[in-house]
Every structure is written in structure tokens, then in C-alpha cells.
Amino acid sequence: MKISVYPYFLEFIHPFALSHGTRTGTQLAYVKIEFEGNIAYGEASLPPYLKETFDSVKTWVQSQSQNAVELLTGNPFKNPEKIPFSSENPAASAALQAAILNYYAASKGKTLSDYFEQSDSKPDLSLTITKNDIEFLNEKLSLEKNFTHFKLKLTGTSDDLDFVKMIRSKTTLPFCIDINQGYQKKEEAIKLISKLEKLNCVLIEQPLNKLDHEGHYWLKQRTALAIIADESIRLYEDLLQYHEAYSGANIKLMKCGGLFQAQKMIHFNPSGEGKFMKFIGCMSESTLGVSTAAVLASQCKMADLDAPYLNTNDPFEGFQILDKKIEVAHPIKLISKAIF
Q1: Distance set, CA 229 to CA 179, 244, 328 (Å)
Q2: Are the C-beta atoms of residues 245 and 229 closer than 8 Å to each other?
Q3: pTM, rounded to two decimals
Q4: What is the residue-level pLDDT of the chain in tens, covering all 340 positions?
Q5: CA dist 115 to 108, 133, 329, 333, Å?
Q6: Rounded alpha-carbon distances, angstroms, from residue 286 to 181, 252, 276, 282, 315
Q7: Residue 333 half-sphere exposure, CB side, CA atoms within 13 Å?
Q8: Based on the domain organization, do 155 and 54 belong to the same domain?
Q9: d(Cα 208, Cα 239) in Å, to the nearest integer?
């Protein structure tokens, strides 16, 4: 068996404006497994605000080669605890796990969806708009019929509310707010949130610093809007420790370490009443990474999986959101073989 790791820079259609800066793309690492004449891939997304890099992914994945060999001689779905995982290398873990599972499923003529719980319910689907998209707003609005919500990225600055009102003047589609830790003070955040309640907003994601769990709990007690954790909750252990501060968590394979870890987080139900929101999301990822996360989408209230609609050089194809429904081709097709 051969395991290789390849770098790829995923470029955005338009610059992406967040509270911590503007980016034109994101570094990816692709894991490729070649075994007994078959090939499978996995993806790691490596935004600059996280500590994992291409080199760290390559080093960790290569250190797990022998473990991967042993897994592929059996059924990795029956022994998920044996799949290599590192809480210090969650994106690398997610990429290697995806490659292993994709390989095994394909070798049996199946897909990943055949091995994970599927529901008849359809999740809400969000499409991202940043402040840099204002010039291209008609382009975004042309996709409105395919999504149930817009996701507006705020920056914690004085023009946040004006940005929201401008978008609301153009569309009546319900919207979510993602602030990406933009507010330092909970008192300033609640002022904005109280105004957003009146504008058909449905949830607020990560308004405060990722370590400010007490501040998020304070906000949660003062608004009817769901307060969703993103950066504050990465792993299942974080969910156990901090869930009371939030109404739900945006679960991402790149944060938690892979499909099995994400499934465990989705099954988490602290109140026993299903009140903790099940939310599957993604980082800046290609069709490969997003299609992997989409395996769990039917189990969730909301799926924030629009990354392929934000990229201009996706090396894979086979994922789309059409008429408010996720459609995934099987298998996902590699269209840019030069990188491998």
C-alpha cells in the first residue's frame, strides 16, 4: 500500500472577509491511498488561523501508514476506534480517515452513506455572504432558490447592522449570523443580537472569543436566538465540558477529526429532549471534503456545506445543492489530475 500527501491551494471566487481578516484562498492537503490497484482520497483544510500545516499533516499521516495497512485488510467500519486519530492533528485525522473509509466502501461497491445513519428529513441549507460580496450581491442572490437560509459573516465592527439591513432589503430569505469571535465584550454583542431578533435572524454563531464560554452562556440567557459554538467547541471532549454555554455546535470534520468523531458529537443529547441543535458545517473545502461531511447532513437540523460555491479551482466535482436539497454523485470525480 502507498500513502501520499499532496498540497493544493484552494482559491476563492471572491476574497473572503471575516472578523480576523480577509483571505483569497486556503491551503489544503490531500491524502491519497493506493492499494491493490485501487485509489481513494481524503482532504484536510488548513486555514491560517489554525496550527496545522501541510508539513504537519504530511508528517502525521506518514507516521500512521502501518496502522492504515492493517485496517485495510479488514473492515474499518467495524473497528472505528482503531482508525488513527490525534486531537492535535484533527484535520490530518479527518483526511486519513476519509481516505481509509472511501477506499473500503469503494472496494465493496458501496458509498460512505451506506455505512452511516440516514434520515428522511432534510436539513436547512445556508449560503455564505461576506461584506466583500456586496459588489457581487446579485450573483449570490441568483442562488437563493436553492438554499433555505443565507449565512451573513459579520466582523464585530460598527457597520455590522447596516450590512445586515442592506441584505434584508434585497431578500426575505431567513438568515443566520456568524461573527467568528468578532466581539470582545458581551454587552456590545447583546446590543446587536437584540436588533437582529427583529430582522428574521434564526441563530448567532460564535459572537465572542472561543475561550469565553461564560460570556456565551450570558448571551444565551438573554436572547431567544440560538447561540451556536464554532471555534469554542472542536472535539467531543469540548462538547461534554462546555455544551451548557451554547444552544448547539457547528460540527466540522476538520475540527473534530473525522466522520466517526462527528457522528458521536451529533448523537450527543445532553437534555434528553433534542434541544441541543445538530449542525454540520465545513471550513474552506473542496467538493471532496464537503461531500464527506454531507454523509451526516440528514441527521442534522442545519447543514452549512456551501464551500464548493465559494471556490474557483475545485479539483473534484459531484456535489451540488439544488432546490434546497443536497445531491452527491457517487463516486466524486477527480477533474484536476495534475495535482496528483
Answers
A1: 11, 11, 27
A2: yes
A3: 0.96
A4: 899 999 999 999 998 877 777 899 999 999 999 998 899 999 999 999 899 999 999 999 999 998 888 898 899 999 899 999 999 999 999 999 999 999 999 999 999 999 999 999 999 999 999 999 999 999 999 999 999 999 999 999 999 999 999 999 999 999 999 999 999 999 999 999 999 999 989 999 999 999 999 999 999 999 999 999 999 999 999 999 999 999 999 999 999 999 999 999 999 988 766 689 999 999 999 999 999 999 999 999 999 999 999 999 999 999 999 999 999 998 999 998 888 8
A5: 11, 38, 16, 20
A6: 24, 14, 28, 10, 7
A7: 6
A8: no
A9: 17
**251 and 133 in one domain?**
yes
Q: What CATH code is carried by the domain that includes residue 46?
A: 3.30.390.10
- The closest of 194, 199, 216 to 207, measured between CA atoms, is 216
Q: Are residues 142 and 283 in the same domain?
A: yes
- Torsion on CA atoms 155, 161, 162, 164, rounded to nearest 10: 80
Which DSSP state fits 156?
Answer: S
> Which CATH number fits the domain that encloses residue 129?
3.20.20.120
The amino acid sitting at 1 is M
58 and 139 inside one domain: no
Q: Which three cell numbers stand for residue 246?
A: 451554547
The C-alpha angle 124, 109, 119, rounded to 5 degrees, equals: 25
Return d(Cα 288, Cα 98) in angstroms, integer.
9
Domain hosting 10: range is: 2-109
